[in-house]
Every structure is written in C-alpha cells, then in structure tokens.
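Entry 14. Ran structure prediction on the chain below.
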Amino acid sequence: MISTNIKAFTIRKAGADDAALILSFIRELAEYEKLSHEVVATEELLEETLFGERHTAEVLIGEYQGSPVAFALFFHNFSTFLGRPGIYLEDLFVKQVYRGKGLGRCMLAYLAHLARERGCGRLEWWVLDWNTPAIDFYRSLHATPMDEWTVFRITGESLVELSHEFRLRGS
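Output, structure tokens:
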C-alpha cells in the first residue's frame, strides 16, 4: 500500500511530447471500464487533436513524486441557460494503487478552480452506472447526478449516413 503526501502530488498541463503517456492512460481507463475494444486512438491522432493547430481538448497530468499517476482530459462546452461556458470532463483516471489517496479530489479541485478562473458556470462529466466507487466518490464531493437526462450518441456508420443526408440536400 502506498501512502501519499498530497504535497508530493503536482498537476501540470500536458504537451505534445505526452501523447504516448496520454494514450497509455486512455488504454488503462478503457481496460478498467471494460471498453478496450473501443480504443482506436493513436499517438499521432492525439498529437494532432490535442496539440495541433485546431486542438479540441486539454489534458492535465497528475504526478506523484515526479511519476505520472493520473490524467484528466477536458474541453469547454456552453450552457445556453447559464449563458456561460462550462468545462466538460471527458476522462479522469488515477492509477489503481493511488486511488483513495485524495489525488482524484485534487484533480477535480484544480478543474473547479480552472472553471472559476475561466468564468465557467459549471463542471460536469458522465460516469458509468455500474462504477459505484466513482459514483460514491462524486457524491462525497456533493456532485449531483443528472438522472433526468438521457445521453444520445451518433457514431460510425450512423454518423456517416446522417452526414450524407445533409450533402444530398445540395448544401
């Protein structure tokens, strides 16, 4: 068992040279969520989409005594009701041996600070309904589950087909 000293935990913004590290975190997260078969990201794709000219998200790396042990990938969204941007946390992952030590809480506290600093009205994320340790953790932070909302998604061939519908209109 590793006992952690929060002062030995630092959070830094990731750079392009972290693409391989980010991909390794994504793969570990996917394995934990039993979704490894869905990971198609590559280092090159992450470099382009996270650090290229039109980057679409940001990544934080949490390091304990200089070793990367956590990551958070997030981007801005917008609330029409609040009239302000928000931060959407796509992924938060802490290596298993470091869980329960306050590192995930530090990562979320930093994101909350960043949201306030950037004038955001909220910080939000999804959690798999079977992930009770995460749900319990989020509830301990007074996060509110949005049970009345249903998530919809269009991907793969369905996305292609819907896109063709627009093109067929001659636009």
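The chain has a mean pLDDT of 93. Will compare against last week's run tomorrow.
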